[in-house]
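FIELD: query
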Amino acid sequence: MSAPCSGGDREVSTNSHEPSTLTRVITSSPWGAGEALAYAHAGGPRPYDEIGSRFRSAAPQTGAVPLRTITDLRRERDIRTRGRLPARLQGLLDHADRLAHRPIDLPTVSGRMGWEVRGEVIHLTVHPDGQPPQVWSFPLTAPPTLLRDQAEDDDVPAGANQTHRIELAGVRWLPLPTLAATGRMLRMQDWRDQLVSDVHPGRLYLFVSHRWLTPDEPDPDGTQACVLAWHLLSAVCEAVRVAHLRGLRRPRRRSTILGLPIGMAGTELAEAVVVNVLRPLLDDDALAVLYTEVSALDALTADRGLAAALADPGLSRLREIVAASQLLRAVLDRIMLWYDYACLPQRPHADAQEVREVEQGLRELRAYQLIGRTVVMLDDVDAHLASAWCTLEALVADAHHTSLHLLPGGPVSADAAEESDRFLREALADRPHLVWRALLDTEVFGLQDRVACMARLGLVATRPGDLPLVYQHLLALGAPQGVHVDDAEVVTGVLPLPVAGADVFVPVDTARPVRPTPPGGAGLDLTAALHLTGGPGPDPAHRASWQRWDVGAHAVIVAACEAEAVLVADWVRTHPAELATALGGPVGSLSWLASDIAPVGHLPSGALRTAVVEADRWVLLTSTARLRHCAATAAVVTAVTTAGLPLLHVAIDRRGDNITELPPGDPADRRVRRVPADRLRHADIAGGVFRAGLIPLAYAVVGGDR
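FIELD: result
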């Protein structure tokens, strides 16, 4: 990475792809990220979480939701722990919030409204015109009419097994009643004949992600088995209550304003039981009978069954409950578990066939996980995040939008369980981005071997020999699908400024266009560009953030990091015929921008500069999410369309129907300034700028203040 520049403007001669006259160049900015990046990466290779934490601490300003690393989260957790109130006092405060007087409905007022959700209560703050603000609180189960009227049906998606025939050779599932009858997890070989292989509709399949507590046995005292069984029983009881009170066939409702379920709704796991098991199995009469039976278990399941599990080693009490209800047993019969120790042959292996079964099972791990939903048994959150297998399983769920259901993996207090739950979810929000950049450093730039990559991610395995296989699974995931948008993103690369007539069009506002994006038309599959295969990296000649090789359209790549931009640029340079056919003409030049929330990896450019581009046709290559949410993407779209130039968008995260022509802009759009080329100032800022600095930088480029 280039060191940050200091000092004022300097005279430079431009290259053949920019204006041919000498140009004043902006080389520093109060929004520059160079110093923060230099501090973060100083001292040689560090753990990626440490680099991210150092970067955040050195940034002069951060946005509302900056990068969250495990290092930062541990520090915040320690602060919360030191300032935590005694459990009984905190409990009283929680009850005070829940037991406060509730209005029947919102009054009719005019003005602005904001909201905050704390626990199961939503607090609406109304700002009536010319009056002090008013706070109105409602439970999410009984929201005001305003939220109910703007809600929509939003059931948990049914499992793929409900609509598709699924056949996976070698997979075995553990029926929940079998676990209850045995009272603990056995080696797969010890109950092979009680496991099931077929995948049928009307069942709920759960992939159990857990940490092995010893090298040879994951659950030596049976605690995980007891907690898992009681938690699932509690989820079934909750599902029965929700289905009975809401209506078996009536879907869950979600507020379009809050983005949260409202009205009668259960946890995600309970709702999955409703959709995948109760509806296919029961009618209203049978549900009413089962509701009466599970109501007697309210005291045992109030805390998700944790206390009952710890008081029931061997699950004898749970077996009595199941035996007393034929209907409850019928529901539990349809819940299938995949738990590695119980469903894959364990050492010592009897023969070579068992070894092959294990190898096949580990290769197919993602497929098993995606059949159903993922349940995470969380005993020690720090150890869980250090586990290579647990991290992989969490990232698979994230990549495929599969819900993670968290439950305690051992005897912990309710406060500790809630803290661990929050810590893991916050850590997983940005974990995919850090892992992806570590893989890019390894596979694209060759800066480290795979062993060093896993070490810098802080990932270990109970059996170190598993690490190469975990690495291969991580490679297969490809780039994270989601984007993290914040003012703390670092923007580097080249900001292309289109020319129309005698003017250069400079975007001075990064607000996203309000017009809808047209549906996709033709297709051009670039998804392979962001999949790492473990083979040779891209041609080093294709790394530059500005390239010209022929006459044709100008391609603009907007990526999540510089390495992603390099991968897409390499694909563009090596697939000219496919591009020309799909786009109706050749691409002759490209530039790329990276808007990086986690600048912890290698930066081959490490600077942001502007360049004037003369091209009659433009192509934007970026993900669907970036087109909708990314400020750098919005700046490019606004400038090009306002200049009256045709702009095609190619969604690089979709395989087909992913080429659209974006609507022309308004020539009078005030988000763009027209500047004669000879009055334009150019930017060349080492380290790039924070996203929040794009607008001030644009005004500096046009020669004025915002």
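FIELD: remark
Residues 414-443 form the longest helix (30 residues).
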